[in-house]
UniProtKB/TrEMBL annotation:
Belongs to the LytR/CpsA/Psr (LCP) family. Residues 109-266 form the Cell envelope-related transcriptional attenuator domain. It comes from Butyrivibrio hungatei. InterPro entries: LytR/CpsA/Psr_CW_biosynth, LytR_CpsA_psr. Gene3D superfamilies: LCP protein (3.40.630.190). This is Transcriptional attenuator, LytR family.
């Protein structure tokens, strides 16, 4: 996984956790929450049979169900209780998210992450999607009319549409299809300009700089202990030298490191300030587009406050990067993609209660 701003993913999870504290009393809203989330997904289970790796009912088992698969000699069942969100970091530095004319100005989704909430084992898993992943992208003209579907970098999909909900829905479809029509229950698209704001709202983040980034910020010398604030945080999680082949890899390691430090800072903030949720949400409200509503957050609240997450829950997809003219193309390894889907979204039959 080599996309910009992994921070956006964790930030959104933390935001929902913080905000939920004010919503826990609204039990009636929770009843609608799950139903609303389910209705937003175009599918009910991945269509794994599309993959050459798919193994179905090879033994003639009369109890076999449609959403079961066979993998590495074991039978797996799709976990229908998992709730999945697509978190997008949009390559726009605008202070306010605004609607644009139909065309290709919606902004590229340079950060793409699937956040999966599993109530069975109370964990949060993250799957990072390389922004250069070559996949089916729907092409629209300046009037919003569908023209064709082409193989292109997945980040380009958000550029079509109006830069708001329309662009997000296009991107959700592209990601769902890449993951064999995986159900996606909600999305949040956040402008890059939100990084310094979110970072400073939690009082900054401490890191040991993993690589020399003095080209972007003089404070970011390799090995230096730095308290990230403002634009320095922005450069640490976003910047890279595009002239270095596959520079996304080293940036990913910075982002993984930053995530852990950010969560610790956010927890400290919550203990010290009861209004932290409202303040944080308000601070970036005009920098994001989301279809996650208050009743859905209310439904998720009891889970989010107790779910486990650490760096081992961040899943990456292997593949190879090739240069095609000026631009890089990432070709995901089907075995790695298939395995990620199974490990995150499926359960062994024998492991089920």
């Amino acid at each position: 996984m080599r996309g910009k701003g992994k921070i956006f993913l964790i930030i959104w999870a933390v935001l929902m956790t913080l905000i939920s504290g004010a919503l826990l009393g609204f039990e009636i809203m929770r009843g609608f929450g799950r139903a609303n989330l389910d209705s937003k997904s175009a599918t009910t289970a991945p269509v794994m049979a599309k993959s050459a790796l798919y193994e179905g009912n090879t033994t003639g088992d009369s109890k076999w169900q449609d959403d079961w698969i066979r993998y590495n000699g074991a039978v797996y069942d799709y976990n229908e209780d998992i709730i999945t969100f697509l978190i997008m970091g949009i390559d726009k530095d605008d202070e306010i998210v605004t609607k644009v004319a139909e065309g290709t100005d919606g902004g590229q989704a340079d950060a793409l992450f699937l956040l999966a909430l599993n109530p069975h084992n109370q964990t949060i898993s993250i799957i990072g999607i390389n922004r250069n992943t070559m996949t089916d992208v729907d092409v629209y003209d300046e009037y919003g009319r569908y023209q064709t579907t082409a193989k292109a970098q997945i980040a380009l999909q958000h550029g079509f549409g109006n830069g708001m909900e329309e662009s997000c829905e296009y991107q959700v479809k592209a990601v769902s299809n890449l993951f064999h029509q995986l159900p996606i229950h909600g999305y949040a698209a956040i402008n890059m300009s939100a990084i310094p704001v979110i970072n400073d709202q939690v009082g900054g983040v401490d890191v040991v700089v993993l690589e020399d980034l003095t080209k972007f910020d003089k404070k970011l010398e390799k090995g230096a202990r730095v308290h990230l604030e403002g634009k320095t945080a922005f450069h640490y999680v976003k910047s890279r030298d595009i002239y270095i082949p596959n520079s996304n890899g080293s940036r990913l390691e910075r982002q993984r490191q930053y995530i852990n430090s950010f969560i610790n800072s956010a927890r400290t903030m919550c203990r010290e300030n009861n209004n932290a949720a409202v303040e944080l949400f308000t601070a970036i409200g005009n920098k994001m587009v989301t279809n996650i509503s208050a009743d859905e957050i209310s439904y998720l609240a009891p889970f989010l406050v107790s779910y486990k997450f650490d760096i081992d829950n961040i899943v990456t997809i292997d593949g190879k990067t090739e240069k095609n003219g000026k631009y890089e193309e990432f070709y995901a390894d089907e075995n790695s993609l298939y395995e990620a889907i199974v490990n995150v979204f499926y359960e062994k039959i024998n492991d089920k209660n």
